């Protein structure tokens, strides 16, 4: 039976970017909404509970780094193999990717059991924050098989262009989380009041249900991939290629965990409220950044497919369309942060003290938004072509070489408001690096590819 031509090689590019990205954006926005709602309910307990969730973020971010970075490698490799019409390799990549997701879960299971409390004690000596944060993080890690499996199966669907199904699963998980948050946190109906632990249980239940639906939808609709574990043996060549692409992505996001952990230690030396503000900022900025990451996830398989199919014109048009969308979204996010910072912070029951720290924080950090949007889209080109090491280098420079040292130097002024200027400074440096890197990769990898079919 002859397989029909994949839409990533024939659909008009603007329409393709929208149809590939929009479902991911929608699901990510729901994900961002759940992050905000999660913290909003936790903030109603008290500020220490909000701080505990904020301090747990680096490990949760690290978990996402390992899960999504592995999936990025699988996604890019799958899409390229589909472009080359190598369907036997496609199936092998998928099976090895699922196994790698399970291995990633085992690592965080061990961390959750043995290291959660140690992690919190390294940041604060407040017993309420330590107790609540340890409980929250331990639950999220021990039951993290849901998020690892969910992300992997969603990327399998994205790699074949079936982003609408990944939207369904991701949205379902987030909606269940939002519904369960107040029930588990405050205790409604037959459920006891669980406080901050209830927020963690709501999160993992949503992830596990999303995983179940992702498996069902893959088996039913993702016909280009056949998953079978009969006579399975690890293919170390494929695993090596997955991590050659994926490890730089893992490191890039992991560096965010190191930056957040270190910056929390700087901020908490002023006051725990400053760390809570930083956590709130991450929840709010996700509403701006999630659509850009959705576009990033949507264009990676498009660029990778057309690279495999040797069609330069469609690759370039994809990049241009994605940049226009990203800059437009970031401009709206920047305007919102500048005009309504106080209203945004009050969503989290902000005290006068939190407002005095948070309003200048949101206004200052949002100066980097438009630069960041351009960076995220251009980074998708490196990921699509399997050149993620450069993206990793940029991320290291932005967050560890520039942002953290600048934040520390500004903290020596004794004014917490000065620390936030480290963000736009670091983003400008990374943009300059990415533009230079893109010019190099265009000349070396893209320029000599045939124009291919019309866009």
Summarize this structure as a short list of keywords or feature phrases.
455 residues; mainly alpha; 0% strand; globular
In round numbers, the mean pLDDT is 90
The domain count comes to 1
Number of strands: 0
Rg (CA only): 22 Å
Strand content: under 5%
Distance between the first and last residues' Cα: 28 Å
Oligomeric state, counting identical vs distinct chains: single chain
Total of DSSP H or I helical runs spanning 4+ residues? 17
Which percent range fits the helix content?
A: over 70%
- Sheet with most strands: none
Order of helices and strands: HHHHHHHHHHHHHHHHH
- Would you identify the regions where 5 or more consecutive residues have pLDDT less than 50? none
Q: Which geometry do the CA atoms define?
A: globular
Determine the structural class based on helices, strands and strand pairing. Answer: mainly alpha
Write the layout of secondary structure elements.
Blueprint: H1 13-43, H2 47-83, H3 87-114, H4 116-121, H5 127-142, H6 145-159, H7 163-186, H8 196-221, H9 236-268, H10 272-308, H11 312-339, H12 341-346, H13 352-365, H14 369-384, H15 388-411, H16 416-419, H17 422-446
Task: Briefly summarize what is shown.
The chain has 455 residues and is mainly α. The protein contains 17 helices and no strands. The longest helix has 37 residues, at 47-83.
What does this protein look like?
This protein has 455 residues and is an all-alpha fold. α2 packs antiparallel against α9 (236-268), α5 runs parallel beside α8 (196-221) and α14 packs parallel to α17 (422-446). It has one domain (7-446). It is globular, with a radius of gyration of 22 Å. It contains 17 helices and no strands.
